[in-house]
Amino acid sequence: MAATESKKQVLIVDENGAAVQPLRDRLCDAGFNVGLVAGGAAAVTELAQRPPHLVILDWDTPGFAALEVIAAVQSVRIPRTVRLILLSVLSSEHDVVAGFSYGADDYIAKPYSLREAVARVCAVLRPQPQEGGHSQVSCHGLVLDPSANRVTAGGQVLKLRGAEYRILALLMAHPGKTYDRNQLLTQIWGGESDVDERTIDVNVQRLRKILTEQGYEARIQTVRGIGYRFTSGQAGVD
Q: pTM of the full predicted structure?
């Protein structure tokens, strides 16, 4: 994979190179440096030698190859955390949630539009928002630190994916304010994105699971028929 400082590096892992060539071409047109490998072993080698900013992985790869690639993605910490998008013909809510549970930053069901796929790549690689400047936001031991792009609970850094962090950062920076799903889609994925509302709900579901494990299960509330808000009080879900 070619390396430049000005372009984000994307690695596509798919046994059917012809099927993803249009996606590769469109990403190149959008300004990304894009590499393509066919197998898990080649992907693991590439991740060890030249970690990209993002891996787009065919989740339908037979055997354990996909899991091996995911493990390699998650092992990379230097020089950067590698983001992960899964591609799959499976599109049920169960499948999407399962994909996120394996550590995906996003999940794209096949068939997909090239415009949507590029929009999702741009969203995953978008710099984290610096809501409220560089000021920390604290709520009973839950601390948002925009200057470090992290959230801690009792001093422990929460392991959040890119979209999860952006959602929580936005809600925490404006406690009590309700954001409808369209606002969240615009704020988190950009106004040109074709991401649907289900993606918001899946990420919020994962966020709640992570927060519940740390004792903050009631912090993200559902405002029925509208969207979500963050509360610093003790109230539960509407």
A: 0.61
Residue written as tokens 């549970």? Answer: 101
pLDDT in tens, 7-59: 899 999 998 889 999 999 999 999 999 999 988 888 888 898 889 999 999 98
The residue among 60, 66, 61 whose CA lies nearest residue 91 is 60
What is the homologous superfamily of the domain 9-125 according to CATH? Response regulator (3.40.50.2300)
Domain with CATH 3.40.50.2300 in the chain: 9-125
**Residue 235 CB-half CA count within 13 A:** 13
Fold designation for 137-230: Arc Repressor Mutant, subunit A (1.10.10)
- Location of structure tokens 């998008």: 85
Beta bridge partners of 143: 138, 152
Q: Which token pair is 54?
A: 């993002």
Residues of the chain with CATH 1.10.10.10: 137-230
Q: What is the edge-to-edge ordering of all strands in the sheet holding 33-37?
A: 33-37, 9-13, 54-58, 83-88, 106-109
